[in-house]
Structures are given as structure tokens and as C-alpha cells.
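I hope you will forgive my troubling you with a question about protein structure. The matter concerns a single protein, recorded as an amino acid sequence and a row of C-alpha cells. Please examine both parts with care and let me know of anything in them that strikes you as inconsistent. Here, with my thanks, is the record as I have it:
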Amino acid sequence: MTKSESACIATVSQFRPALPGHIHSKYSLVCTGCSGTYYDDRLKCPSDSALLRAKYSSRQLMLKDMPGMGKFHDWLPIHGIIISDSGPITYKSTELAAELGLNNLYISFNGYWPERGAFIKTCSFKELEAFPTIQKLKNTGCSLVLASAGNTARAFAHVAGMTGIDVYIVVPESGMSRMWLPEEPTNSIHLIQMGKNCDYTDSIHLAERIASLPGMLAEGGARNVARRDGMGTVMLDAAFYMKRMPDHYFQAIGSGTGGIAAWEASLRLLEDGRFGSRLPRLHLAQNLPFAPMYHAWESGRRELIKDIDMPNPKKLIHEMYADILSNREPPYSIGGGVYDALCSTDGIMYGISNSEAKSAQQLFERYEGIDIFPPAGVAVASLIEAVNSRKIDSDEHVLLNITGGGVKRLEMDYSPHKIEPAAHAENAHVPLEEIITQKVLA
């Protein structure tokens, strides 16, 4: 076994007792279940299944004089500063706000819209996950492995190409139309396409198997604090722009990791003391007919019940307008997950139909003047429902997370390049040797 392979295995599986000052001084990892504290990088607590959460030594966030998300360095679990103009931007809406009768509607736009100062070139807030994750892992000597329904894959491929880090990305066939980059793909990007009957969860299972190989390192999904805290910069940027936390936060979710990230960032802002004394109320939306967390929350259940919340899931996912919002194993029930985030913030969940999402998407584009992705349309539809059902008052401060958009605007400045698959896997259980013989893992 090579030195880099040994380092990879240690990073994932070795659990050492917490020693003050060991490895990190910038942050520690605290289990949201047992409160155990760790000073080495890891994805799991050895005592329970609850999420680990980064606790930063800087209790007040001091912005760096940097563009993009690099300004939030103090609350990102990395040591090198991110040098990029990629990051969330916040602005106060006028046109859509007037249409909805809201006096304090703020929009976090996560995509490409240079006129607004938005330069996420993969047009998705998944890029906020990719930069800190790859920055955090680039010195391990390992190759990164992850699964994606499309947008995450594009974001990680983009950052991997910029940094030269090898990344192995497993994507279902339904996500292949989203496999493009604003630049020529590099040899560090290894895309594995799954069979036509596979979905995002199948991709996760295959990625887990690949990540167990020597020299490979699992990206970690919802358990990856770099991923969550990267997405949490949406809330941080809005709080600094508004000079307070919002009263309400709206986002569409598939796994719910973005909702967890918004909650965790709000908890830090609460402790900071400069942005208010009350957590924003989370308004999280899923796209019907596949909305397992919505059904469980409406039923008052912490646990997801497969036959009740997601019967015949692949058929339901196929019927979704925003099919990227599909995860059969979301971090809903675990400690520190979506259920806890909703309980902590007196949150609300929405089940949005395809027609509602399409209409809301068109409404946003008409009033705000920029194209957005279907998941963002789901979020806009949940805001419309909240207004119509009087869940928010006209003077309250509302933050709407537009998680992706600006592709049409990007195409005015760039010529997107398709990422071709390096290998194919018919299902999640294929022998890994079959993929190796296609050279992708060689």
C-alpha cells in the first residue's frame, strides 16, 4: 500500500480520541447526538449516527477582503483561502416583491448573472460545496469519489479541473444532460454513467463501493462539513447584506442538506450576536409526486416509512419536473438532520406540483429577468403558497434561495462543453472489475 493510500484510509476510518489542539485549532467537530468533540477530520462519530458539526474558534465572523466565498474563510473548515469569484450574492427584490406584496423580499442568487455580480459558472449553488471540499482534501493524495444527480457532478468536475484533483463521479442516465462545463473537461474528471433504470440513490451506492478502494476517498454527502458549511455561506452573505438574519428562509430540497446548512449557519450567526436573536423559520419544499420528507413531516413522523412516503419511488421520480430533487435516503431522521432543523426553527414543508413549479419558474423569470432551474421554481412556488396562506407578513424579512440559474446568460459568454462518460455501470452492484477494465479506475 502506498503512503497516499494509507493516508486516505486513515482520513476516512481512523477514530482517535479528542486531544486539545490536535491537528486543528481553527475548528473542532462536535457530534449533534452525543456532543463528543473531535479535533481530527472525520465523517462520523464512533458512538452514534448523528451528524458532526464544525465548531469554529472564531465566534464572530470577520469577513476577509476576498471575492466570492473566500470572504467567509473563518467559518469554513479549511486552512487555505479559496481564491475565486464564485459565491452567493444577495439583493433586494423589487418586481417579484411587488407582485407578491412583500416589502422585504431578498433573493440569494446562486448562478451566473454578471450584471448582479454572480459568477458561479456551473450555475448551481453546488459549486459552494465543491470549492471547500476539494480545498480540504487536496493534500491527502487521494482521488475524490462522489455521486450526483447532475448539478453536484458539474460543480465538482469544474473545481477538479481547476485544481487538477482526480474526481470520480457516478451519475444516473437521467442526469447526463446536466453534464457540461463552461470550459474543456480535463483528464482529472472521470465520469461513470449508470444504466437507464438507475436513479440518484443507485449512484450513491455505487460511489460508496468505489470509495472503498485503495487511494479513493468518499466525498461524504450530508456528513461532509465542508459541503454543508460551503452552502451555509448563502445565509452568511444574506445576513451581512441585510444586517440581520431573515425571518423566513425558502429553499427547495432533495436530500435536505442545504436546509441543514442554512440552519447551522443561522445557529452560528445567533451566537455571533450581531444579526438578531431569533432563528429564521425554514420553509423547505419538495416536488410532488416524490416528496418523502414532506409526507413524513406532515404526518408528524421523524422516521421515513418507505411504503407510505415513497411507494414505487423510481416511477414517482420519473414523473417529477425537478427530478434532481430526489433522494431515497435523505438525512431526515438522523440527529442534526432535516427533522431536527425543522423542529428547531418551527419550520414548514411544502409539496409542490409540477404545474405549480413551472408557473412559479416563469413568474420569477418574467419579474426578475433571469432564467432559473426547475428546483428554484419549486422554491418560488413554496413562497407563493406561503404568501397566499398568510404564513408570512408583508413586512417580514424573507430570504429566497435561488439555488441555480443563469444558463441562458452564461451561453452568451461561454460555449459549454459536454462531459463524456469514461465508463458505464448497468447497476450499483456490478463487479468493480468491470469498471476497472474500462480504464476509469485503473
Q: What stands out?
A: The longest helix spans residues 257-272.
